[in-house]
Amino acid sequence: GYNFPRDVGYPLNSEAGSRYLMMETHYSIPPLEVDMSDSSGIRVYYTESLRDNDAGVLSVGLDPNWRHIIPPGQPHVVSEGHCISTCTQHAVPPTGINMFAATLLTHLIGRKVRLRQIRNGVELPPIAADSNYDPNYQEFRQLVKPVQVHKGDHLIAECVYNSVGRSTITLGGLTSREEMCLVFGYYYPRMDLSLCHSLPSLPTVLHSLGIQELWPNDSSRIVLQSRLLDTFQKHL
């Protein structure tokens, strides 16, 4: 179990916050036990006696997308997702925000994850880090003390993968066979920003595959992108 700080609560306000809430459950079912059933759930308690600060969640990292490519047979592959200073300059309030917990997320081949913080060109100690990451341990990690994020700070979710056991490329995506690189930071006071992801551009991906240029029109570009995605999926 995890408790928020005593002066922080998560708002359930359809007018000023989320319009709906979704419970999402991920299963890992052994092939020989496909007839297993599940009856778990959650019970939500709420109060009208509000705490002093509304909490928010900020997701920093790579958009879960096929353009995130991890080559096979490599003991050390680094991926980064950036929340650039322009975004925090626009969204973070003048007094800054206080990050008090984090959840680190990769899938099966993730080995290290950290949330880096750069201010005025100087890198500060990581907000959260795990150098021996276990993808089965995806829990709230309470920070020793809240870390301030200022307007203009540059945040980087950095993930290290070990793909030695794989003979084909791994793509970014939502399934456990695909990969992610995300850090969810829990903070207060709440601001109007929940996702701050980056994604390699299509030309960057094509260049990494040895493709120097595309056909000249946009329709051909879309066709090529679709064919590349189909090719990648066949190799998974």
UniProtKB/TrEMBL annotation:
<dbReference type="InterPro" id="IPR036939">
    <property type="entry name" value="Cu2_ascorb_mOase_N_sf"/>
</dbReference>
<dbReference type="Pfam" id="PF03712">
    <property type="entry name" value="Cu2_monoox_C"/>
</dbReference>
<feature type="domain" description="Copper type II ascorbate-dependent monooxygenase C-terminal">
    <location>
        <begin position="54"/>
        <end position="198"/>
    </location>
</feature>
<dbReference type="InterPro" id="IPR014784">
    <property type="entry name" value="Cu2_ascorb_mOase-like_C"/>
</dbReference>
<dbReference type="GO" id="GO:0030667">
    <property type="term" value="C:secretory granule membrane"/>
</dbReference>
<dbReference type="InterPro" id="IPR024548">
    <property type="entry name" value="Cu2_monoox_C"/>
</dbReference>
<dbReference type="GO" id="GO:0004500">
    <property type="term" value="F:dopamine beta-monooxygenase activity"/>
</dbReference>
<dbReference type="GO" id="GO:0042421">
    <property type="term" value="P:norepinephrine biosynthetic process"/>
</dbReference>
<keyword id="KW-0325">Glycoprotein</keyword>
<keyword id="KW-1015">Disulfide bond</keyword>
<dbReference type="InterPro" id="IPR000945">
    <property type="entry name" value="DBH-like"/>
</dbReference>
<dbReference type="InterPro" id="IPR008977">
    <property type="entry name" value="PHM/PNGase_F_dom_sf"/>
</dbReference>
<comment type="similarity">
    <text>Belongs to the copper type II ascorbate-dependent monooxygenase family.</text>
</comment>
<dbReference type="GO" id="GO:0006589">
    <property type="term" value="P:octopamine biosynthetic process"/>
</dbReference>
<dbReference type="GO" id="GO:0005615">
    <property type="term" value="C:extracellular space"/>
</dbReference>
<dbReference type="GO" id="GO:0005507">
    <property type="term" value="F:copper ion binding"/>
</dbReference>
<protein>
    <recommendedName>
        <fullName>Copper type II ascorbate-dependent monooxygenase C-terminal domain-containing protein</fullName>
    </recommendedName>
</protein>
<dbReference type="GO" id="GO:0042420">
    <property type="term" value="P:dopamine catabolic process"/>
</dbReference>
